[in-house]
Design brief:
The structure is a homotetramer of 365-residue chains.
Chain A lengths: L3 E2 L4 E5 L6 E7 L9 H11 L16 E4 L1 E2 L2 E2 L4 E6 L6 H4 L11 H7 L17 H17 L3 E9 L2 E2 L8 H9 L9 H13 L6 E8 L13 H10 L4 E6 L10 H4 L3 E4 L2 E4 L7 E2 L2 E2 L4 E7 L9 E5 L4 E5 L10 H24 L9
Helix pairs in contact in A: 1-4, 1-9, 4-9, 7-9
């Protein structure tokens, strides 16, 4: 399954940047889950370009649920969401047909698809397709929340400006992100936006690190080897364009610690086994330990910039110079937060359904 | 498939640290691949504890291939390798039955398996089980090499001592690792071993970062979303105990760059499209671009240390102190290199078989 | 993947009888395959109710391809087909909400989906959803035909009237079915339609046996155990509503033969190894042997009849009598032929892609 | 996964007829299930050749469980069973190397594996490998029985002699098969064995139809389309060598009935919804309806016979005559019963684990 993910709950992604509609099929859902169209619309609005860090492309993100929902609740049959594409300016892309935009998928798609790829706007590789993940994720996030499981993502650093990390008990932080205009926890939104604006003014782009937390996940979810919680999340997260690194807990910093510093001692708190510290990010041996699952994702700078770059014309087989003149995001770190939250919801719900059965999400705690 | 990985070529892992035999089944192999038992033995010898950084446990790693090979070549039927466990000292572990070793899987296994887990030596979670990955990987590495694809892993940093990274064209570096007693590229083996020995003398352990390169992989392998080359590798790599982070190319460092710096310009070299620089680690849009695939893996310090730690006794439900007195590795970074190389071979071979058909590996170039 | 099938080429099915649109996603296709909308429309027209054996429901089967096709050819990205539902009369079904129609899925859906199922017109269980299989199948059948592989299905028997079986070399027979108004090979269409009409006049329904042939499949496709050609086809065929039996070659009749009669001797014909007779239906040991793959599918009578039947009201928990007064098919054997041909194309194309690589279908022979 | 089956609970099969050991890995089991070695040995003894219908090959079927069991119970880690091959007479096969035995997999294996297959005794295609299914099935059957689910298979007909079908409530019949020397329900063992002996005396072989029942399966298990209970069982059953047809309930006979006769009316019995009659074999819309699941499997005559047959020498590329002079079964219908029961247990347990969670089997009802 190349464009599908999951085992018990699965998500299939289809559509292109400049095609008529995106399509996402969410299968294996418990019956009886509430489907709140306002919640989906709200999550899509968060993903939508807006403000100083994003592209000028203005999407409307109307959507239609055409299967799997009856009288406001999931039926258990596959749920299909269609999201029409609007404000498509293919002409922006016709001009540089054949040009391999550096660090984009134009060249690899050209090889893999033998020249038959839809090159307009990145085709199926476009970040536009993540709207489907966000819409499907919204349904899962509501269901998970009803079972006490919350997921949120904020910008930990961008363009040299740092946010504070999630608190040890991240529930309040996660809830605060739902209402935030800009997904940071501390008081750094202004500085970040300014730093991004400076890059845009230079015709350039910036990257960043975003941090995701899952709170309320029971201990015992995940598998020792090839279905590890880290591995399942990482595979999902690397599916998102621009991601080049994932680390759990203290991650790469652990490499520089000694064991006595890196280990999280087990303690008993109110009769429950917890850890002192969470340098392992809530996961031991690939399995959740009941502490918040916390991971960081490295997001590279948007490859599309307006500064001239060296590249090749794949059709002519010549080297050339390229400077993008259309609309693009100087940073995707703001928008990627809601996407990572959505895809993390899919992995979480799938593993819970595998562990506890397909109806678990629908049960009242 | 919880303990299996792959789609066209699959690996299934079974066995425990203190059980009689490990078992690995490699399925979907092309028929006619040479199976060189000396090559398998050599790779297993590399993984085997030895020298100053490793545990004092001395394993012999005899192995038997009991299916899938006939007259020295793969038959196309599933290939089974059995590796008996020797030098097992279960008594070391009986003493602390019920103790949740910090940052180990004892507690999560206890929750997941409801107290029925084989707790001796970490059971199925033990690094011992990676011997199966190494043995299977050896067969795949030989087959890949016959098609011009080389894979190697070295210690990029450990206990504060750094190695040089892979050269831009890593073939020579990869080949040098085959003969290396200690898997580093530069002149740092002595310093690293000393630093590890210092930690051991303190009853402590250290972690590190290891770097893997795949050279010779054709462009066009991988999928845009949920079968991305990064995601497939990451899922495989996170299956290995102690891994807490994975980054491709410049990885987390990309988050601090601007696009003009992070992008790899496309160039033409000898009629072939290449990139200037490889900050994307040979992957664009989840698909190989023909440059070496390079990724770093963060390895946490071995959780087992002899210094006393706070933890809980899961059977008594009480807090307690724990200091390990058995044999253990003060660092697994040396031994994990050969394991990462092996599991990367599995992912690489599987994606090639999916893309080009099951017989591709067996064809003479 | 509950509503998806395939490994390298996959089909995902969504939508309900009385929902706004059906959705089918076909993923893993080779790039560059021609997509002929007239061919899809033609196959859909064959499936559409018409003539004396089918329901009076008149569907238009307009369809839109909203992804995966660019300038008339597949791009390699997932291909989405949307088929709007028209002529939906939900009121027919409102009247008997809660009534478990005998031998339908109403009761099992009610248990599985805990009362949240869309009960109108059978919901996701409706034969209506097979339009998606037919549309996707049309694309695959064209691609397979370009590689010399033909697939066709005819009614072998219905309501006591028998057709002749496929000829030993079935190409001509398969091609004749493309133009046939009624999918039979011999001169029995009139008698069959009369027999069906007689059942309809009695307020009753009939079943039948349909026979499928795959011609031109190379030897060597399929797996010894759990990916056997028989098993993969059978799983696909049993997904179609009303199917209760599948047999390959002489099938159940083999049970009454002796080995000397049942075995197909190997012979050499024009330098090629063939079999004398095809009682094994082109498959030995789960793997194609180069002869035509031939199988029969048992289709039960349409469960919906207008004669009164005993059943239960699931909401009231009482026994009751039920007689359907809406539109329905007195036999689905005619319409199921095109559906079986479509789903067989999916299995065939998937196994070929797994064996020979994802681009095999797109290569010019 | 070519030689693996299942989603939540999976079985991987490896080994060859003339190799040193068979290997079966059963993964995804609930922890805490009792593993009764006597029960496994008993099931293996049932499969073992014995009496007048079977081959003269005498296997001992010693087995070793080398992982996944600790102190007599499953740990939740993959469970490996090794079964050494004894009494192997490869010389029987050396004599006809290159000869494609009619209706065997010799020719298809030769094409698929390009001449590298282990041809001795059918290699991985040998019925010998089913010992692994039987051993793994024994563990699952015990676990299912503890939840009130019973599975059994008997010979419905063989060589022209018929047994009576399962009773409408098949529990007693299933239990009677556990102790039966010959797996029939009625008084036909003598006549069947005589008919088989007659075929053997003629140097020939016979086939038959075997019938399997699952009793106690809850309603609501299975999926509407590609995970249908019929399809999942059929795929599993067709994995067994010699199977050429599968039908559920009245199966092919339904094709000749009218709907009013074929439908199973729903009734209420003791507050529970049941059906009057079970012509649908306990499945509606791919999902269990709470009645016994009943299916018939067509088994072709053993292809190996001692009468001379026409065939080809694949190495010489010539036609030739072949008469087998080694040991073989004149009928496999007796031995296949226990294998079908075992593989049905795997499918049943897997679907239950997917539906109700991985621990369901371990819970005390």
């Amino acid at each position: 399954m190349k464009n599908s993910i999951g085992t018990s709950i699965t998500l299939t992604l289809a559509g292109e940047s400049h095609g008529p509609e995106l399509c996402v099929v969410l299968d294996g859902l418990a019956p009886g889950l509430k489907v709140d169209e306002a919640s989906i619309a709200g999550r899509l609005a968060s993903r939508r370009p807006q403000g100083p860090t994003d592209t000028a492309r203005r999407e409307k993100d109307e959507f239609r649920i055409v299967s799997g929902v009856f009288e406001g609740r999931t039926t258990g049959a596959p749920l299909t969401i269609l999201i029409p594409n609007a404000d498509v300016r293919s002409a922006d892309y016709e001009r540089f047909k054949g040009i391999a935009r550096p660090s984009h998928a134009d060249y690899t798609a050209h090889v893999k698809y033998a020249g038959f790829e839809d090159y307009r706007g990145g085709g199926h590789f476009s970040g536009r397709v993540t709207a489907g993940i966000v819409a499907a994720g919204a349904i899962l996030l509501d269901a998970l929340a009803s079972r006490g499981i919350l997921i949120g993502t904020h910008i930990l650093s961008c363009a040299g400006v740092a946010d504070r990390p999630f608190a040890a008990e991240p529930e309040k932080d996660i809830l605060s992100l739902l209402d935030a205009e800009f997904p940071v926890l501390g008081d750094c939104a202004g500085a970040m936006c300014e730093a991004v604006a400076a890059a845009r003014a230079d015709g350039d782009s910036v990257g960043g690190i975003v941090q995701t937390a899952i709170s309320g996940l029971p201990a015992g979810v995940g598998e020792p080897w090839f279905g590890s919680l880290e591995g399942q999340i990482a595979n999902a997260v690397f599916s998102i364009g621009g991601v080049k690194g994932v680390e759990f807990g203290a991650g790469f910093a652990l490499a520089g610690m000694r064991g006595s510093e890196a280990n999280d001692p087990f303690r008993i708190n109110g009769g429950r086994i917890v850890t002192g510290g969470n340098r392992n990010g809530g996961i031991n041996g690939g399995i959740s330990n009941g502490m918040p699952v916390v991971f960081n994702t490295a997001v590279k700078p948007t490859p599309t910039i307006s500064r001239p770059q060296l590249t090749v014309d794949m059709l002519k087989g010549t080297e050339c110079e390229f400077a993008f003149a259309g609309r693009h995001d100087p940073a995707i770190v703001r928008r990627i937060c809601i996407v990572l939250t959505g895809i993390t919801a899919l992995v979480t719900a799938d593993l819970l359904a595998l562990r506890y059965g397909t109806d678990w999400l629908a049960e009242i705690k």
